[in-house]
Each structure stands twice: as C-alpha cells, then as structure tokens.
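Exercise (ungraded).
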Amino acid sequence: MRNAFFIFVLMVCISSVEGQALLGTTGYLNIPSADMMEDGTFYFGGSYINEAYIDSYGGGNDDAFTYYLNLTFLPFMEVSFGSTRLLLDTYERTTVDRRFSFRFRPLRERKYIPAIVVGVHDLYTSIPKENETNQYFSSIYIVATKNIPVRGSEFGITLGYGARVFRNNQFLGLFGGVSFSPGFYRPMKFIAEYDGEGINFGINAMFFRHLYAYVMVHNLEYLSGGIAYHVYLLNNAKKKRKAKKQK
Amino acid sequence: MKKIIFIGFLILSIPGGYAQDKSGLLEEKLVSTGFENIRVTNIDSNYYISFENNIYRWNVRALSTALDTIAAYSPHNASIELVQLSFDIPQIITQVDAISWIRFRSDTIKNNTIDTSLSVSYKTKSSWTLLKKQKPEKRNIARFDLVFYPQFYLSNLTYEKVYEIQFNIAPAIEVSFWKGMLLTAQVIFPIYNDCKVYGEGDNKIRPGFLVLTQNFLLPGPVFGTVSLGNFNYDRYGVDFKLNYPFKNPKWYIGMNAGVTGYSVFTDTGWEIGYLNTLTFSASAGYFLPRFNLRFEASAGRYVQGDYGGRFDLSRMFGETTIGLYASFTTLDNIESGQPNAGFHLTIPFPPGKRFKRRGFRVDLPNYFDWEYNGATELYYGRYYETRPNVNRTEHYFNPLYIKNELLKNRHYK
C-alpha cells in the first residue's frame, strides 16, 4: 500500500507535459501543435500505426511501426528524425522510410498571446521529381496553440493550416484540436482533434517524468499508440523545481 | 545546514601563515586528488599553478575540483592563476580570487558577481613562463592506459534486413613518453558483424589506430598536432593540424593537411598502398556562448580525391554534444555533386571520475561519439581520423564554454 502511494506521489509530482504526435514531433495526437518541449529535451520512442492511417505508404494494406528521435535543439527550434517500416509486409522488402523534420517557434506563448510554430516534416528526398515520391509524411504548416489554466486544470486549443507544397501532404488546409489536462494529474491530456481528414480522440500521459505513452482512435475507428522515453539534457526541470522550492 | 558546514569547512581549511609554506601542501593535495603535471609557485599572494586532468571525465569538473582544492589550501587573499594542461602543453588559464571562488561554491555570492572576478582565457603565456621552469609533480610520462573503445555501426542498405550491425571492442594502449607526445596502439576485436554491403571482411582481429602523435604550441597561441601512423578509413600516413583561436575566443580558424596511402589488413597480410593521396581542409568557426552553440564551416579535399565543404551546427548540452550537419562534395565524373546531411552526438560514458593513474590503468573511454550519415555515403566527403577519441567534447577547451559551465554547475561535486 505504501509502495502504491509512493508511486502515485511520484507520478503526481510532475507538472504538465507537452504532448507528442504519432510520428514523434510535438503535437496532439496526429496534428502538430505550437507547444514546444523544454530546451534540451531529447526523446526517443516508437508508435504502432494502423494501416488505415497510412494509405500513401504501402497502399493502406499494412500496419506500420515508426520510431523516432526528437530534440529541442534550441528553445525555439526542434529537430526530429524518424523511420517507418511496414509490418506484415507482402513484399520481400524490409527497407524503412526515413524522415527529417524541423519546427521553429517565432512567437512564444504569453498571457494573452498564443504560441506560433512553423514546421516542415519529411522535407527531403533523394528521388527525382519525375519519379514516384517516397515522402509519405511530408507537410509544411503554421500552427497556433493557447493553453488556459483553470483552477489547477488546463485547457488547450490549437488551430493550424497546412499548405500544398509536397507531392504528399500530411496536413492540408485547416486542422485543429482541443486538449484538457485534469488538475488531479496534469501530466495527462485528453485530446480531440480534426486533422484535415477525420476526427481523432485520444489520451496521453507522462509517468515518472520520463516515460510517455499515448493511445488514440483514428476517425473514431482505428486504434494506434506508442511510447517514448524523455531525457532532459539541460536538466532545467530539476533546477526550476529547486528554485521554486527555495522561493 | 549542509551549506553552513561546507562554508565552515572551507573557511577552517584556509590556512594563515606564510604563503611559501603552503605551496608544498597545495601540491600534495593536488597530487592526492589524482591530477598530473602539477606545478605550484607564488609571488606574494599570486599563486601560479598548472595541472593536467586525467582523472575526471569532464574538464569542467576537473577545473572546478582543482579550484576547490587550491582555494582551500592557499591563503584567503590569494589570487589564483590556474593553467590547465594537455600532454603538458598549456591550453587555458583560469584566474580567480580564492575567497571569491569559495563564496561562489558555497552559494554566498551571485553568478553576476563571480562573473566579473572569474576569467577563463587562452592567455597562458605569462603564467606558463613562470611555471614551466619547474619540475612537475606526478608527470604524465610513461603512464599506460588500456582503454576499451566500443565501435558500433548500423547501416540500412539491403532489402533483406532492416539494419546491418557491426559491433567491435577495440582496446588501445595510450601512453606518453615525452612532452606533447601520445602513442596509441589499438587492436579491433569483432564481436558481431552481419554487414554484407560494407564491412563484410571485418570479421578478423585487426589493428586499429597505430599512431604517434606530437602536440605542440606555437606563439599566438596556435595549437598544433602532427600524427604519423595507421589511421582509420584504411589510411596510413602523416597528418598535420593547426588551430588558431582569435583574441575574441568566439572565433577560430583551423587547417589540416595529410599525405596518406591505402592500408588494409587482409587474410594474406597487411596491404599497404603508395603514400600519394593529399588531403587538406580549412575551417572557420564561431561559438555562441548564450546557447553553447558552435557554427563551423570547412572546405577541402577529401580522401577519395573529391572536393567539398561541410557546415556543422553543434550544441553542447553540458557534457553531451549534439549537432546537425550538411555537406557537399564534387567529383569530376559526377556533374551534380553529392549532397549529404545528418547528425552527430557525443555522449558521456560513466563513471565521471576514473581511477588514478599509476603505472598502468584499465579504463573506458570518456565519451562515445556517433555520426548519422543520411545519404549512406561511406567513401566521398570523408576524412580519416588520427585518434580513437576524436570527438566534440573531450578536447574542447573553449574558455567561453568552460566559464559558462563553471557558472552553471556551481554545486557540482
């Protein structure tokens, strides 16, 4: 009983956490948000992706697994690298599809002003333009997010726009979502979002400050989910907690 | 309470009396901490000290510990000038008053106060002129290190496997016999190798780096290195490096030139080609202290005779360095050239404090470095390395970085 209580206290001893999307960049479930992880946050993880979600890769016939690394390289810049591999592959191919992504935050969130982030995902391919593309997860977008604390809980709202630049564009036109972190456990978020094609629901949570997990339902039908491990290279969170204690 | 005890201990340990008597004690304390090439002298209350760190993984922690010891065992009005050495060659100097350092470490002054009284720079000349005449205590000469370097490669080149993996253990004997010198003799023991495209023949026990390196310092200061022997990327030959930091230590330039030939270990023996490949490069860099961010651009001629350039953006998160790069090489027969990009990382290897070096020490490397090469280009746009521990943290003595980290880690023990 004491152990269970101790574990619970450890879990609760974390302030709110930024979420990360299916492919490893900071965001809600599928859509990107303008939240940005704390400077120096590095995480690696993997997601199971339902076949219905990735009709551009593998023709929507196979589920996929993606793994990724993400780093808040500067307080206003995030870089991400990931690879996706089709599962239950019908071909004798086990190659992976790689992607590099960058996100820049020109405007930080203030009391009445939302944060704004400009992002480009899966931006490079070595395949010539006249051939079939292998940029299955590319997108370029601008997104705004505002988080509103209410009595210890927190509501978030995100609105973004994806432009048609690549041959495949993961986010086209308007997308957006809402999130809610309950006051009794702020590292958890309930999320509903529209990704430009369908509506997704899901939940994410951070455990013990390092272990992140989420599960989502695409289009109210297909299940996907993943886990990641977070490392804080600048250890700012620890320092901030210490400073807060001293105050 | 802990803080009060720490301050009390530091104050009690500040001896009074005559400064000359304390030099010997100070020397003893630095030796017992595990530092090497220790020289201590003083003129009135100015204490000139040099030391070399081969015990702490991170130079910043070594410097911090050395300053703690010196501040505790020198008179309270001492002004410290501490020269940090590498192979008995001065790299940087740290200047601070003993009492300011004690107050800083015991949390009784703010960062902006210590900021003005703590200085780290390349200006070692005047202090080193006084110190170099002395015979050092605990010389770094003829102390053998057996360092077990792990080597890990991943490649995604075939349809049959997601990743081909190669893992080797490469122990190296590292020893210095005279000032500035380092002899490295490494053997590679393959542990696991399923690489079919590149590295199929890497299943044999084979030599790695067999290199004689001479480090030197020219006026300026210009830091130089000459290396002779068997390098990596199947090269042997001679390599020459110079690095010049400007008076404003944010900026630096460097050059590198080498003449190498093919060198590979096969079933029939060691195959060596003619020494006829000229490689060279020039580089320029800028360090942004606010983020510990380093920009570096370089251009030159690579091992395959291709010409090209590379731009690196590296950030130092304390002891961990992570960076991004983009490069481009041109060959006569490839009109469009070869673009490439990727990332690199240098991560610390535990523990933070190593065993003291006596005659012989078995050790792990201080850092593990790894580079991801997006275009899977293993031939073009590449230089060889001349030592197994070439990375972006271990030999980095930028005064701005050192000072930033000293200020950030005031509670580091």
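Further reading is listed at the end of the chapter. For now, observe: Chain A touches chain B at residues 40, 42, 71, 73-74, 79, 81, 83, 85, 92-96, 98, 100, 124, 126, 233-235 (CB under 8 Å). Chain A has a mean pLDDT of 84.
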